[in-house]
Amino acid sequence: MSRYDAIIIGAGHNGLTCAAYLAMNGLTVKVVERRKVVGGAAVTEEFHPGFRNSVAAYTVSLLNPQVIADLDLAGHGLRIVERRAQNFLPAPDGSYLLTGEGHTHQSLAKLSERDSLEIDAFNAELETIADVLRQFVLRAPPNVVEGVSLNTLRESFNALESGAILRRLSLEQQRLLLDLFTLSAGEMLDDRFESDLVKALFGFDAIVGHYASPYAAGSAYVMLHHAFGEVNGRKGRWGHAIGGMGAITQAMAASARSHGAEIETDAGVREILVENGHAIGVTLDNGETLRGRYIVSNVNPTLLYTRLVPQAALPAPFAKRIAQYRNGSGTFRMNVALSALPSFTALPGAGDHLTSGIIIAPSLAYMERAYQDARQFGWSREPVVEMLIPSTLDDSLSPPGAHIASLFCQHVAPTLPEGKSWDDHREEVADLMIATVDRYAPGFAQSVIARQILSPLDLEREFGLIGGDIFHGKLTLNQLFSARPLLGHADYRGPLKGLYHCGAGAHPGGGVTGAPGYNAAQTVLRDHQRIFL
Fold first, then answer.
1. Which residues form the Amine oxidase domain (predicted)?
2. If phi over 0 gives left and psi between -120 and 50 gives alpha, with beta otherwise, what is residue 276?
3. For residue 262, what are the β-bridge partners?
4. Among candidates 109, 51, 99, which has minimal Cα distance to 356?
5. Cα–Cα distance between 207 and 214 in angstroms, integer?
6. Domains of the chain: total
7. Are the C-beta atoms of 522 and 490 separated by less than 8 Å?
8. Using CA atoms, how far apart are residues 56 and 39, in angstroms rounded to an integer?
């Protein structure tokens, strides 16, 4: 029986981040991964001969710069390049919005003079709030605890420090922060802008991974969540990892191994071993048992507490609350091999816009209809599609003259109505997604050589994303900050001694950030020091 200081369940980017930090601080670390490759949802694979792409996670912005530096990801081969334009939104009437340096105001001049003046102010306001909230990303939120103890005192100081950070905002900025946490994105955007395309630009960020209307209360926070990012020190940017998202996790794995961590793939966990309220090890699918002082989970909290931890070991109040944890982001993913680049009616030919995030969702009303359709029928008749063509920035992904595209599609119901199965309808919905792009870029459908389809059910089976939830749980107010995943467990500690959370189901939530992995590692290291120093 092998023994380690820490056993990490899942070699996704947060699990690898946590492993690297623990190993570089002298702990013996074993990472076990169910799939045959490391990376979790941030992985690059060949889906058609000669064509590789980021299979699930598909773009870079939220990856924390401190994690990049501490793990020396560049030294382990990671290279990130910025898009030459940020976003391109074509409209059915032939108009369009193109954003990014040298593009935004030129494009807006044709749409709305008022919005051209307003967009910089709005971006600046979001950046001010995001800049303050970035200070909460690499720290545990105040944990809600009962009674009077040293832990209560510690969390009280944490809450005071958090309050001091927020007090740096002016009163007007605090009002904006309150609005961003409670209002709908639609309300805020309708008040600020007149152009449908400008509203759609920001509104799209409010529904990414969020199965809801842009007019749903709290959707403004999801919009803010996507404003935290940066690429190569440039805030608010989006980029591409050369070699795809798997290049990030390959570099993380190399970093962890360089510090002595062991990583084993094709090693799914059957059960977490519990004795007298302590998590003490894991049993693998092959029957092997591993023992560890700290069992750190990078899987969705629902999976962790319904499939891996014995139900009899859980405190009854916790078991009841975690059963109410909400998943399901309404996501449908496709990767397509193309014989040629698409040409959009609104902006024909090649250009910087093809390196951007191409958003097919020309208005908030379009997004609203997409959500209502999905609730009623199971998928949108006119879906929201973001298409990236990473081969415009990275020629290692496809043969010369050919290209690959990522399609991130919403809305679709995590579970189809009337007892229907995604296995029976995935091809039909994939046809719809291709046809949607083809309406804006005629000839696109004919250029498709091959396609990889991931329905919500496929995403759950392959990557453990419950209901296709890319964030390991909804980003709603009752599942954020001190309430992620549950009140009383925001400190990365589970309800059993020795059990920890390091995945996106912990603060600060979803996206390829590395932040939950970093924060969980700091918690484990503090506990380790209290025991052994």
1. 15-328
2. left
3. 30
4. 99
5. 6
6. 2
7. no
8. 10
The domain of 270 spans 2-40+65-75+243-325+469-532
Q: Supply the Cα-derived Rg of the chain in whole angstroms.
A: 23
Token pair belonging to 318: 């916790």
Write phi, then psi, for 40 (nearest 5 degrees): 60, -130
Both 227 and 250 in one domain: the answer is no
Q: Which two tokens stand for residue 497?
A: 């001694």
Residue 159 to residues 367, 458, 522: CA-CA distances in angstroms? 37, 40, 18
Q: Are residues 500 and 522 in the same domain?
A: yes
pTM of the model: 0.94
* Sign of the torsion angle spanned by Cα atoms 410, 416, 418, 423: positive
Q: Does one domain contain both 136 and 233?
A: yes
Instruction: Flag whether pLDDT at 56 surpasses 80.
Output: yes
Mean pLDDT along residues 337-365: 98
Tokens 């510690």 map to which residue?
Answer: 154
Q: What share of the chain is helix, strand, coil (3-state, %, to 5)?
A: 40, 20, 40
Q: Identify residue 412 by its one-letter amino acid code.
A: V
Residue 344 pLDDT > 90: yes
> Looking at the domain assignment, is residue 117 inside a domain?
no
Q: Give the residue-averaged pLDDT of 90-95.
A: 97
- The 3 state secondary structure assigned to 228-246 is CCEECCEECCCEEECCCCH
In a domain, 355, yes or no: no
Written as six digits, the tokens of 257 are 């191994």
Work out the pLDDT band at 148, boundaries 50, 70, 90: very low
Burial class (CB in 10 A: 0-12, 13-18, 19+), 164: exposed
Label the pairing between strands 379-388 and 239-241.
unpaired
The residues, any chain, with a CB within 8 Å of residue 378's CB and separated by 6 or more, are 412, 413, 416, 417, 420, 425
Range 192-197 average pLDDT: 97
Q: How far apart are CA 46 and CA 247, in angstroms?
A: 14
Structural tokens at position 215: 């007019």
Type of residue at 134 = R
Q: Is residue 50 part of a domain?
A: no
Element (H, E) at 393: none
Q: Which residues pair with 333 in a beta bridge?
A: 408, 454
52 beta partners: 46
> What are the tens digits of pLDDT across the range 207-227?
999 999 999 999 999 999 988
H-assigned helices in 109-195: 113-133, 150-166, 171-182, 185-192
Q: Please tell me the distance from the alpha carbon of residue 11 to that of residue 249, in angstroms, as a whole number.
A: 8
Q: At 403, which helix (H) or strand (E)?
A: strand 403-412
Calpha distance 324→321 (Å, rounded):
5
Give SS3 for 415: coil
Distance (Å, whole) CA 85 – CA 483: 36
* DSSP run (H or E) holding 468: none
Whether the predicted pLDDT of 167 surpasses 90: no
CA 47 to chain centre: 22
- Amino acid making up residue 197: L
User: Does residue 295 share a domain with residue 232?
Assistant: no
